[in-house]
Structure formats: structure tokens, C-alpha cells
């Protein structure tokens, strides 16, 4: 069998570990042949293909990014887009199935290609936001939390030196898992997430409480957080290929509001793509490798339109529809647990 692999959407630590796990499992257990599509779905619609051998994935688990490249291309657009054109391309190159590694947008596209065109595709969940339902954790999340926690630790020393309030913005379009975990790990004095809108008055109350105890306040905010009265998350960077707003900058809105109301000098730091870069953590390397191996098993089981997933400590297979239909939101109980530590 000849299997094509792609990495689409935003990059994250662990993508190469998935590729390595899939190739090694396929070659060793099934004598499969692998190719990669360069630049995600763009490589599919443009037939930009490269071979992937066992030699090519040697030592790849510890390497960040993706050897295949990634983009936010919509496979239903362009001259070579759509299920009919894609199936024709697959037939011409003798490719029997696609393993699509990506997040919500990537998996939604994969599901449509299967449902509308019968494309043989299996998904692997990838998102540092940890926002995909049907999987307890996705690889890349653990590494992103570690990076954000280190940033909090570093910001704390400079905040203490000047008596400033630091507002750290982390990724999290729809859910606040990175903010919640890094904020708790780093001892943040307030954690602001999309699931829990908070008033500027409440935020300032937490900040002033910290100041009154002789500490420098540190606030962690997810990029998708909204204040009451905001109809949507802050965005000034236009739309991506799936017509979703490119978020970022809410911390730069909050910091001057906090300073104006409290009189505490405040600074914003947008962590941005640093959260996506660098080598994956040990946890993410193991999880990504296991998911890659399981994706190959799903291909040989002809579980088309499915996605491999983590449930507890077990790797299972579920419908992609179950993964993209709902979001893995931070439950109220988890936020209430963290809120006790605010202020």
C-alpha cells in the first residue's frame, strides 16, 4: 500500500514524531510505501509530492516543525481542488490513502473530502490549543504549556524588579487550556479564558489585591478572551484561508486599561508563535509517535473518515465528525478550581 502524509494548518511540536511513527510502523509491520505532500493541502491540490523512506525519518522525533511544511490551504479551492480532482491525482500517483495531520480546519476538510468524494483519509489530531473534542489531549499542547510557563517565570522577575503588572497573552482561539495550565503552573494572579468572560472591574480588583500585598501582578490571557460587550475576540490581522479571524492583541488592549484604572504601570507580552516552535517535550514525542502508529493501523483497517485519539492512556479510533462537531472547552469546575488562586 502507498500512503500519503500531510501536515496542515499551524505547525506545532510533535508533527515530525507523528510522521516518524507512521512511517516506521508502516514499513516494519506492513512493508508500506510512503510519500509526503508538501505544504499541507496545497501539496495535494498541486500534486507536490516527495518520497519518505525509513532513512528520512531517522532521529526525527526530537525535531520541531515539520519536514513536509504546512499551510492553511483549503483543498476545495484552486484548479486542482475538490474531491474529484484530488482522487484523480491520487490514482495517477498510485496513492491509496491519505493521513491528514492537523487541527479543526484540517480535519473538517478531511471529513468533507471523505463524505463528499469518498477519499480514503484518516486524521491525526494536532492542536496546541487542545480544543478538539473526542481526544483527551493532543500533541503539542504539553510543549506549548511548558514554553508559556517559562515565559511566566521570566516575566515575574522583571515585573518584581519594577513593580509592574505583566499581561501575558498565549494562544487559545476558542478554549483556554494553555492559559489555564500555564497560569496555574506559573502562579498567575488572574487567568482569562474564552469560556469565562470577566469584566475589567473584576480584573482590576484581582490586580489591586496583588499590589496591596506587595506583589507585582501577573495576568495570563488567552487570545480568544473577550470582555463583556465584545461581540467577538480581538482581531486586527484579517482572515485565514478558512475565513477565520487571525486573533492576537487582546493583551495590548487590557494592559493600558489596567494601568488607567489602577495606576499600576502595566506591560503586555504576546507570546505568539514561540509557543509553536522548538523541540517537543518528551510527553508530546511519545503521544505523537503513538498516534502516528495508530493512524497506519486505521488505514489498514480501512477506517476511512476516522481519527485516532487519546482516551485516558489508550489510543482509540473515532469518527472525525465526533472530533470537529464540538469543542473541548475548559469546564466550569476546572476554572473554579484555578480561580481560588486569583488575586
TrEMBL record:
Mg(2+) binds at residue 104. GO terms for molecular function: 6-phosphofructokinase activity; AMP binding; ATP binding; diphosphate-fructose-6-phosphate 1-phosphotransferase activity; fructose-6-phosphate binding; identical protein binding; metal ion binding; monosaccharide binding. It is found in: Cytoplasm. The record marks 105 as: Important for substrate specificity. InterPro entries: ATP_PFK, ATP_PFK_prok-type, Phosphofructokinase_CS, Phosphofructokinase_dom, Phosphofructokinase_III, PKF_sf. GO terms for cellular component: 6-phosphofructokinase complex. Residues 2-299 form the Phosphofructokinase domain. It comes from the Bacteria. Catalyzes the phosphorylation of D-fructose 6-phosphate to fructose 1,6-bisphosphate by ATP, the first committing step of glycolysis. This is ATP-dependent 6-phosphofructokinase. It comes from Agromyces badenianii.
Amino acid at each position: 500500500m502507498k500512503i500519503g502524509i500531510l501536515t496542515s494548518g499551524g505547525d506545532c511540536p510533535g508533527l515530525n514524531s507523528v510522521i516518524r511513527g507512521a512511517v516506521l510502523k508502516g514499513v516494519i509491520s506492513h512493508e508500506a510505501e510512503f510519500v509526503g505532500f508538501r505544504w499541507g493541502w496545497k501539496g495535494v491540490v498541486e500534486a507536490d509530492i516527495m518520497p519518505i523512506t525509513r532513512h528520512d525519518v531517522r532521529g526525527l522525533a526530537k525535531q520541531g516543525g515539520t519536514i513536509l511544511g504546512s499551510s492553511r490551504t483549503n483543498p476545495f479551492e484552486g484548479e486542482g481542488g475538490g474531491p474529484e480532482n484530488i482522487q484523480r491525482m491520487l490514482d495517477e500517483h498510485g496513492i491509496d490513502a491519505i493521513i491528514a495531520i492537523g487541527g479543526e480546519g484540517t480535519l473538517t476538510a478531511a471529513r468533507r473530502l471523505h463524505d463528499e468524494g469518498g477519499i480514503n483519509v484518516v486524521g491525526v489530531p494536532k492542536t496546541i490549543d487542545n480544543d478538539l473534542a473526542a481526544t483527551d489531549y493532543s500533541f503539542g499542547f504539553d510543549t506549548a504549556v511548558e514554553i508559556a510557563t517559562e515565559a511566566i517565570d521570566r516575566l515575574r522577575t522583571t515585573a518584581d524588579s519594577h513593580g509592574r503588572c505583566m499581561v501575558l497573552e498565549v494562544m487559545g482561539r476558542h478554549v483556554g487550556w494553555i492559559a489555564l495550565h500555564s497560569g496555574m503552573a506559573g502562579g498567575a494572579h488572574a487567568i482569562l479564558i474564552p469560556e469565562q468572560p470577566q469584566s475589567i472591574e473584576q480584573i482590576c480588583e484581582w490586580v489591586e489585591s496583588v499590589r496591596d500585598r506587595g506583589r507585582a501582578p501577573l495576568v495570563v490571557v488567552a487570545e480568544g478572551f473577550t470582555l463583556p460587550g465584545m461581540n467577538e475576540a480581538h482581531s486586527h490581522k484579517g482572515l485565514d484561508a478558512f475565513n477565520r479571524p487571525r486573533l492576537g492583541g487582546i493583551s495590548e488592549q487590557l494592559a493600558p486599561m489596567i494601568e488607567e484604572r489602577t495606576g499600576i504601570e502595566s506591560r503586555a507580552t504576546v507570546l505568539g508563535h514561540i509557543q509553536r516552535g522548538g523541540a517537543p517535550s518528551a510527553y508530546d514525542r511519545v503521544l505523537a509517535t503513538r498516534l502516528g502508529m495508530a493512524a497506519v493501523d486505521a488505514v489498514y483497517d480501512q477506517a476511512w473518515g476516522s481519527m485516532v485519539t487519546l482516551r485516558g492512556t489508550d489510543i482509540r479510533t473515532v469518527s472525525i465528525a465526533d472530533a470537529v462537531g464540538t469543542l473541548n472547552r475548559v469546564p466550569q469546575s476546572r476554572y473554579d478550581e484555578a480561580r481560588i488562586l486569583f488575586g
